[in-house]
């Protein structure tokens, strides 16, 4: 049976054997940022529910989100969401069959990281 | 059985199952979010940290409220699809099914709570 030896087979070498590359690293960070943003999303939902509930509930939620710890989460959230948004746009461009060459893809990844950093700085300064 | 073609018998039997449809839905929600996220960052960001009365007054305006409502709804639909791929890659067996169902429940619950909250602020 196909599953008789589940878990006991030799695996092909993957993460540990490759040197870090722009293509793999930008991909891994797309996954990390996308899934980590659930924390931000739940905090923002809590903030809206509290605002709809009343001033006391809002004070609790807003107090946490605007505390130093909340601000830290929000800072990483802004960086993460700009990065993930640009990564998503890159995926849409890839899906259209463009920018798939290795060199173009690497340049594109570097540009994306740079733009994400600049947008994060811009957002933090403006808001 | 007589009318089954080889292609029909093979359809859906590969390891990807309904992966094409999943990918298409992720594409649709990501196109929507590519527009919504910058709008949400700058609307939510401009009122973030303001007093309660200002926040309520701000979200009684239609534009920020519609942006927030759509971002929460589409964002959680997108998360629901994305986290499923994450779980499928790292969790297996019954735990995979439990984790996917739990995340779907979390996504729709949070989306419903967020949408209801924004709507009740706006109305």
TrEMBL record, chain A:
GO cellular component: a single term: membrane
Transmembrane portions of the chain: 28-48, 68-86, 107-126
Membrane topology, record value: Multi-pass membrane protein
Record carries keyword Lipid metabolism: no
Intracellular or extracellular location(s): Membrane
Cofactor, how bound (note): The heme is bound between the two transmembrane subunits.
Molecular function terms, GO-annotated: electron transfer activity; metal ion binding
SUPFAM superfamilies registered for this protein in UniProt: Fumarate reductase respiratory complex transmembrane subunits (SSF81343)
Major location category of this protein: membrane
GO biological process: tricarboxylic acid cycle
Keyword vocabulary terms for this entry: Heme, Iron, Membrane, Metal-binding, Transmembrane, Transmembrane helix
Cofactor: heme
Annotated binding of heme, by residue: 84
Origin: domain of life: Bacteria
Purpose of the protein: Membrane-anchoring subunit of succinate dehydrogenase (SDH).
Self-association and partners: Part of an enzyme complex containing four subunits: a flavoprotein, an iron-sulfur protein, plus two membrane-anchoring proteins, SdhC and SdhD. The complex can form homotrimers.
Similarity comment text for this entry: Belongs to the cytochrome b560 family.
Annotated protein name in UniProt: Succinate dehydrogenase cytochrome b556 subunit
Taxonomy of the source species: Bacteria, Pseudomonadati, Pseudomonadota, Alphaproteobacteria, Rhodobacterales
TrEMBL record, chain B:
GO molecular function, one term: metal ion binding
Necessary cofactors: heme
SUPFAM superfamilies membership: Fumarate reductase respiratory complex transmembrane subunits
Pathway, per record: Carbohydrate metabolism; tricarboxylic acid cycle
Record's subcellular location: Membrane
GO CC, one annotated term: membrane
UniProt keyword Cell wall biogenesis/degradation present: no
Gene3D superfamilies from the UniProt entry: Fumarate reductase/succinate dehydrogenase, transmembrane subunit
Pfam families linked: Sdh_cyt (PF01127)
Assembly and interaction partners: Part of an enzyme complex containing four subunits: a flavoprotein, an iron-sulfur protein, plus two membrane-anchoring proteins, SdhC and SdhD.
NCBIfam families according to UniProt: succ_dehyd_anc
Protein's name according to its UniProt entry: Succinate dehydrogenase hydrophobic membrane anchor subunit
Organism of this sequence: Loktanella salsilacus
Organism lineage: Bacteria, Pseudomonadati, Pseudomonadota, Alphaproteobacteria, Rhodobacterales
């Amino acid at each position: 049976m196909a599953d008789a030896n589940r878990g006991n087979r030799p695996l092909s070498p993957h993460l540990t054997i490759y040197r870090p590359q722009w293509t793999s690293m930008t991909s891994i960070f797309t996954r990390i940022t996308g899934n980590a943003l659930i924390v931000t999303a739940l905090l923002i939902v809590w903030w809206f529910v509290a605002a709809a509930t009343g001033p006391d509930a809002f004070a609790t939620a807003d107090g946490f989100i605007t505390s130093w710890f909340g601000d830290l989460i929000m800072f990483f959230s802004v960086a993460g969401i700009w990065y993930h948004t640009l990564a998503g746009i890159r995926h849409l461009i890839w899906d259209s069959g463009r920018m798939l060459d290795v060199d173009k893809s690497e340049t594109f990844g570097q540009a994306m990281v740079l733009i994400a950093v600049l947008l994060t700085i811009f957002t933090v300064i403006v808001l | 059985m007589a009318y089954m073609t080889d292609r029909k018998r093979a359809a859906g039997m590969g390891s990807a199952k309904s992966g094409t449809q999943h990918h298409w839905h992720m594409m649709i929600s990501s196109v929507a979010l590519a527009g919504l996220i910058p709008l949400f960052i700058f609307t939510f960001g401009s009122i973030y940290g303001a007093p309660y009365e200002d926040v309520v007054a701000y979200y009684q305006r239609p534009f920020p409220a519609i942006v927030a409502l759509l971002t929460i709804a589409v964002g959680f639909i997108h998360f629901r699809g994305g986290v499923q791929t994450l779980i499928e890659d790292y969790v297996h067996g019954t735990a995979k099914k439990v984790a996917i169902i739990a995340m779907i429940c979390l996504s729709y619950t949070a989306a419903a709570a967020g949408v209801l909250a924004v709507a009740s602020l706006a109305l």
